[in-house]
Write a structure and sequence with these properties.
Chain A is α+β, with helices and mostly antiparallel strands. Chain A is built from two helices and six strands. Chains A and B meet through strand 2 and helix 1 of A and helix 2 and strand 6 of B.
């Protein structure tokens, strides 16, 4: 579990409701070229006992600023660390990367089943 | 049940139809920072015996103007008080919050099952 | 059955196809304030033996110009009178009302089941 | 079968794939008023043995330029003649007509079942 | 299997997640007229053991620049060669071609079943 | 001067600033056909001593609901009556009428000179 | 002067105001290929003594449906005949033609000087 | 001068450049009805010796949350207090208010002359 | 003068009117990387004695498909060759290039003065 | 002059034409909070003897990734260093910064006079 991520108790633990956080300012570094990559990260989840705290989520995203990591790897790492932080009923990470070489890419990964 | 909310008899009680009210002027206060939060609230419901009166709905939303309350809590409170006011067949509250710290958030909570 | 509405024989009675008519110029009067209301009415239906004639549909919509009637009531009345005029397999009326008191509203009512 | 429509052998007959052709320049004549009607025609189909040749499709659509025909009738005629020309697994014609008398109309008709 | 396409090991082989690459700069030649055709190619797939390398995907797309090939044929060839390169769980190619003779066309072909 | 229009003293009479009011719910009647016309009215002006009161402006616009009047005439009448009510430094009325017979129309008339 | 065009007396002859009519349904025939052309025609003018009657304008535009005429010629002919019909202070015709051979074209011609 | 507004020295005092700050979360109270008003405030200015500090600008805007004040008055007060805080070469305040009674309003006021 | 470009006599030589042709399918090759570049070319001109023939314009643009040439050079070459072909009163070439390395570029060059 | 920026000889030195480069991936650090800032930088200039090389421009922009610098300062520094690199006839830098504290900001600075 990533130590930057903080949680707080779910205020409505008996209800299956959806929380979405959109972050258009994600940036990491391409391990091949050393040049920066940019993405918009959408996080959608149904909380169980805990919700992810917003400010810690921002600090967590910003911690990737100097990391060299590929599109497919970073999307799956985000999903795993975010899911580990709050053990949600269901979670989905959608990463939309800016155009590189004329190609723009989107990676969508899910954890658990949406009821 | 919130005392601001008024209802009137459903004019077509035998039919499962959907009523939606979109309110882009919701504002409350962040309990942590004391700074104002802003959201667009979409209310969708299938009425049973009663419909929510439009002017009272506006006064109800405006009553949150000075309340300190978090995103997840306010969305669930809105759903509970609105559902209590008219006992609908089904109800959904969608709260779309303005960007804070580069992150914009949406919370969606439902009451009952859509037939 | 409203006497303004006219129909013509369905040219393809053996096929379940969908006809949609969008009318952005619907206006009636608020019974409470006496002020005009405005809506866009979308009519979708699968015809059985008869189709609704377009010019008569326009005159029918325009006949509400001076009527005092609430959102929920007018949507259900439109559905009932339009369905009575042509006995469709399925029909849906979607009424999107202009902003009043900061709130814009949509009412969706259906008749029969979409195959 | 309309003699203007030409086909060519489906290059991938073993696969159920969808072909869509959008034509925003369809025009015919209103049989009542003699005034021109305008529509965007979307053709979607899953080919069986044959695909519709694009240039012949354009000539076929243009052959309606001087025909007097109603919305519902022309949409069903297009579907029947296009389906007869290539015997598709599934076909759908969507005709979106320009505003007349403040009302814009869409007619959607299907042939066969989408797998 | 096309020799231009390169792959790398899937970093999350145990998870069914979706990778999408959008390429708005595809161009080939019409075999009939000799004039260039243009398309936006969307590739969506669920990887199995291997992911398609982005730079090789771009070179592969660019290799069609001087080829004479019809819409339906090129879409199916892209799907076959891309699927052969990485043996995905599921793959879809969507080719949106620019307007020719007033008609714009979209071809969508799939390989395998989306779980 | 139209008796429905009310004014209040300009709070900044020494400054040439621009006030704009957009009203998308204007409706009158076509004198030829008796059918309703619809327009969006934009009023822009630089006040002198007086500003137009918003609620009275709405009632003034609504007073045209049953009047039979042509596009060019109504736009010029609006300009004359609105200018007479507040003697502005400069005023412009822009009336955008909905499509009739496939043609949508805009009439723009000014009073005085914009400094 | 084209005999289809009718005028009526300008209701505000002392004021230099602008009238605009947008017609998205103009169609003529390409003299070279015999295939139909399509355009949106925007007419803007400052009337002098006379205004162009809307229904006659539509019939005038529709009279080009079977005429073979090039883009540059038809735009200038429209300007000349429309200006001759009402002797305006200023007039402009903007013709936006649909894509042919991958190229979309706009022709803008003016008569007189905008004050 | 409003005591909430803070400034810092212009880093490029010799150059006439434009600074714009857009704030879509302005809210005050209607003095007549007691109901909240909402506006987007755009501030554009050419600094002289001082620039307005961003966080203090936000606190300044938020200080209107409970004030009863009309559209025209608040726009001119914002301009006067913001100009007094930094003595700019030129300044413009544009206030776009949400729809009330079917009318949306914009007030634009300037201080000094744009070079 | 490029030999692909053909002209025809201006049908309205006494009037200063503007002709615009938009071509979103321009492609050439980067001389540095050998990879294709893509641009939308807008040509605007006021003809003198001659107008550029549309089909020859398309063939002329397509003749750059295999040429290695930089953004700034190709825009100026287009302007020079297009102006030489028809000796216009005024001409402007606007070339909008697709994103490369995260940067999208526009080059605008004019010949003569717009009256 | 910044050592990262490279130039090449202007291919059309006798013509006053405009070059624009749009870079939506600019990021620096807020000196106050240490948190990242994001901006879209538009560079427009009329070259004199030299043009800015595109790849070096990207590396130059990326060199701000770890710098702590305020909005107004960075925009003026960009203008000064970019102008020093190529001595243009005219240059403009437009920096559009992402929302911070509910406020989005744009800074526009020019060097020289546009002819």
């Amino acid at each position: 579990m990533n130590s930057l991520l903080e949680t707080f108790p779910n205020p409505a633990p008996g209800r299956a409701y959806v929380i979405s956080h959109l972050f258009p300012e994600f940036t990491s570094v391409c391990p091949k070229t050393g040049q920066p990559d940019f993405a918009t990260i959408e996080l959608d989840y149904i909380p169980s006992e805990a919700c992810i705290e917003l400010k810690s989520l921002k600090f967590y995203y910003n911690s990737f600023r100097d990391k060299g990591i590929f599109y497919e790897a970073v999307t799956n790492q985000l999903l795993e660390e975010l899911a580990a932080s709050c053990s949600p009923v269901w979670m989905r990470v959608t990463a939309r990367f800016n155009t590189r070489g004329g190609i723009s890419s989107v990676i969508v990964a899910e954890h658990g089943n949406k009821p």
